[in-house]
Design a protein that fits this description.
The protein is mainly α and 247 residues long. It has one domain. Helix content is 79%, strand content 0%. It is globular and about 55 Å long.
């Protein structure tokens, strides 16, 4: 069991270390959460680096000047998310990590326009606000004793409703509606951050009691992907609300 759990770190257990069976729940949870936030942070750095690279004019011309390439990247993102969420049981921890960082890099390329549309000061400000709110929400999700399972349905319905309104607004072109959508989405992704943080805790507990140590080795990647998506979407909406566009 120890061999499987230690795929989180990619290292063989050293002789004399406590086995997973003897670890307390809090110890395992902290180990998984450390992996979650480490992988998520590395994913965000990968996205930021790819977005900065994608902001160079020749890269912009290549990506956005070639519809086939741009839509190919969008489709690749969707496929990678589906594979990571649906086929995680069949993937090794290493394969899941490779796919995650590949997704983060592609996501950065498609989001590279933020460096062209918004000022650097606005991007930094939006990042600081996002990181502060995100940190507060994860703390709430970690510490709350209330079962938040019933949040999932409401958050999903709200997300779908805002997606439909966003599509409608493409044709309407209403800046007021776009502003309202962004504010509502900020609260939805704040709620998802709380829910997903608690969900990670519950998945750790479930897998410890179900005797499935292999999944414990992958929970860091699953949790990192969930919180990564929450952070990126929250950042984009805060940037849309508070960001100052370049002249």
């Amino acid at each position: 069991m120890n061999d499987q759990f230690d795929t989180l770190t990619g290292q063989r257990p050293k002789p004399g270390l406590m086995s997973l069976d003897n670890l307390e729940y809090d110890d395992v949870l902290r180990a998984v959460l450390r992996r979650v936030y480490l992988v998520m942070t590395l994913g965000l750095l990968t996205t930021a680096a790819a977005a900065y690279f994608g902001a160079f004019p020749f890269v912009q011309g290549l990506i956005f000047g070639t519809p086939f390439l741009f839509y190919g990247l969008i489709i690749a993102e969707l496929i990678l998310v589906i594979v990571l969420t649906a086929a995680i049981n069949k993937l090794s921890a290493f394969s899941a990590a490779v796919l995650f960082f590949f997704y983060a890099a592609i996501n950065g390329l498609t989001l590279s326009t933020v460096f062209l549309v918004y000022s650097n000061a606005s991007i930094v400000m939006a990042f600081v606000i996002t990181a502060s709110l995100f940190g507060a929400m994860t703390l709430i999700g970690y510490s709350t004793k209330k079962n938040l399972d019933n949040w999932r349905g409401y958050l999903l319905v709200g997300l779908i409703a805002m997606l439909i309104l966003s599509i409608v607004n493409i044709f309407m072109g209403s800046s007021q509606l776009e502003w309202v959508i962004s504010i509502v989405l900020v609260f939805i992704f704040l709620g998802l951050t709380i829910y997903d943080t608690q969900r990670i805790k519950r998945m750790v507990s479930y897998n410890m009691h179900s005797g499935d140590p292999g999944m414990l080795a992958k929970l860091g990647m699953i949790g990192a992907l969930r919180l990564y998506l929450d952070f990126v979407n929250l950042f984009l909406r805060i940037l849309r609300i508070f960001g100052r566009r370049r002249n």
